Amino acid sequence: MSKRRLGNAEPALILVVDDDRRIRGLLSRFLVSEGYRVSSAASAAEATARLSELIVDLIVLDVMMPGEDGLAFVARLRAENSPLSDAPILMLTARSELKSRVAGFEAGVDDYLGKPFEPRELVLRIASILRRTRAPARELGRARVANFGGLSFSPDSGLLLRGEKPVPLTTRERELLGALAGGDVVSRRALATRPGDAESNERSVDVEIARLRRKIEDAAHLIQTVRGQGYRLILDAPLADASETRAHS
Asked: Which residues contact 115 (CB under 8 A, 6 or more apart)?
């Protein structure tokens, strides 16, 4: 069966994964009322089946589920070589301690929202994530570009290219590269500050940076740790407009 994907003019398609039927129904109805299209699943296995039929724009995922839990599901999805391996994921969980947040970010989630939560906050976080979804490659031609280690990244479009080939990034990875693209040292506290969060989670930044380093592989050494200060991306040249880069090449 071929997968269906919504066109650009259609509302985003969100997959809600939660074993609690009541919560699943409430979330689905609320998101539909906000203008989104929604599919739902009661388990990781059911979510996997949904993803074999649809290419969704975002996954809202509960961490505590029977069978394969949310963290294991995220880790498996991120490890796959598929169009959905970098699908944005917002994790919902009753766990609020730091250990669970770090585990979620290490698995590859884009954002975290603890239960109970205000529906309006959920919508704002979803909107924030969707705004940062990868832009079409053609947008890179008009965007500012940071070049480093054979890679080109546009903070405006969130697109990372190795040569002409796009490198899949999660929303959080795009945020981190965007913050570092100027080539300046950026503190862990600044990198930990996220839209909608009242507190900074500096420990999670170290986990996220380590994951980003693995993602860009041979350029991993270019994200330098500046002891006592934060992180810095070593650029080939100062951040410039793409047209300027081509003119001087």
From this structure: 92, 93, 94
